[in-house]
Structures are given as structure tokens and as C-alpha cells.
Amino acid sequence: MTTITRHDPKRQGDARFYEIDGIKYPSVTSVLSVINKPALIPWATKTALESARRELVNFVGEDSLYGGKREITLADVDGIIERAKKKPNEVRDAAADIGTRAHAAFDAFIATGKVIVPDHDLMQPFENFHAWYRERQFAKLEGERVVYSQMFGYAGSLDALGITEEGRHIVVDFKTSNGLYPEFVAQVAAYRMALAEMGVNVAREAHLVRFGKDKPEFEAHRFDGAALEAAFEAFKGALAIFRWQHAGKAGA
Q1: Interatomic CA distance for residues 133 and 149, integer angstroms
Q2: Helix intervals (H) in 144-224
Q3: What's the Cα-to-Cα distance from 11 to each of 21, 77, 79, 146, 176, rounded to whole Å?
Q4: Please, are residues 223 and 205 in contact by the beta-carbon 8 Å criterion?
Q5: Residue 87 in contact with residue 45, Cβ under 8 Å?
Q6: Element at 36 (helix H, strand E)
Q7: For 215-251, what is each residue's pLDDT tens digit?
Q8: How far apart are the C-alpha atoms of 233 and 202, rounded to whole Å?
Q9: Tens of pLDDT along 126-179?
Q10: Separation CA 32–CA 221 (nearest Å)
Q11: What's the Cα-to-Cα distance from 204 to each of 170, 233, 237, rounded to whole Å?
């Protein structure tokens, strides 16, 4: 019987690993983290500057928290800058937390058919998920599953498996991000390859579904064999870079 243990990145440096029958495999998402995301730097800069601007406006405004009655000091400026520097990470972590809890709610619904959404900030994502669920193209839908590839040496947790009338399995991945990015296609391509290696009857397609967090919207995208093959080649390149970066590190 296969034994699977997940290793939290806090214990493994900057990457997540799965231990499967005593062998450690890097997670698919950790592998893909080596891909440069050029939009993140302008976003982080804008987020930090907006945070600083809000504090400065509050400081000097007539209706400010400080009553607008004293001059700003160097210590005030240093505090504003320090809080602004932390703001992008705070926003990122809050979004990741919503994504984690939303995925748990989706998985619980798939498993039980019951709607259990205790948090108010999950109502919109879950309503969007349910709207997609009603329109899904699969005869059945199964929840999260750990997959791994001994041949290439990686592992991961796919969000769902769509099962057709003919019994073919289709990788489905859910996103609550503000957009869909190329590395997401490499992610589902890696899951699909691992699933096929594990002997599952996989279809030559995979689906990415994004659910809005604040608006009633979802977008579903299907990727076929040719697109997935190209994406998996990109994933293998990322895997080579990941191994090179982590050579000699604990857990690698």
C-alpha cells in the first residue's frame, strides 16, 4: 500500500515536498514557482505605494486619524514605509487563504453534495463554483487526489477529476486568482502525465476553471493534447531548473 506524507514548506525551506513510500518528490506548484512572473513586481509596487498614500492622506487630512493637528515626523514616515513594504505579502497571503478555504468547500461539496460555507467571504466563490457545477460537462466528478510520477520525479494534488460516460478521467483544476496564467496549463499537464503513469484511463484534455471572488462569474477553459504536450515540455524545463536550484539542499 502506498504511503503518502506531505511536507510543509516551513520545514523544507522554500518548497513543498511529498514523501511517497520513503521517496521525496517536489510538488508541482513548487516546481513551477521557478517561472518568472513579471506582473508581480509592478503589482507589489503599486500595492505598497497605495498603502503609503492612504496612510499619508489619513495623517494630513482634516478628518484624519490624527486630527491633522501635528506635523509628520521621521518616525511616522519610517512606520508608514515599513507597513507599506509588508502590504503586498499581507494581500497575497489573504488571497491564498481564501483560495485554500474555497478549495476545501468545493471538495466537501463534491464529496457529500452538501453546501457547507461557514465564511462570508466564500459565498461568492462558492456560488460561482455551484453555477459551473450545474453546467459541468462530466458524468461524474471526484474530488482532490494526490498524483505522482516516478519517471520524472514530482508529485501534486489535483483539485478534481471529471469522469466521462466512457470512463475516461479528465484533470480539472480550480482557481480563485484574478486571471489564468500560462504556468497553470503546465500544472494540469503535469497532473495529467502523472495520472496516466499511475495507470488511470486519462483523456487527452484537461480543464482550468477560474471563479471570481467578488463578482458572479466563472470562466472554464479546455486544453487538448497538443497544448498539454507543449505545456508538459515547459514543465520539464522548470523541473530541471528547480533541481539545479535545490541541489544539495535538505529534502531535495
Answers
A1: 29
A2: 182-197
A3: 19, 36, 31, 20, 26
A4: yes
A5: no
A6: none
A7: 999 999 999 989 999 999 999 999 999 999 988 664 4
A8: 18
A9: 999 999 998 888 889 999 999 999 999 999 999 999 999 899 999 999 999 888
A10: 20
A11: 8, 16, 21
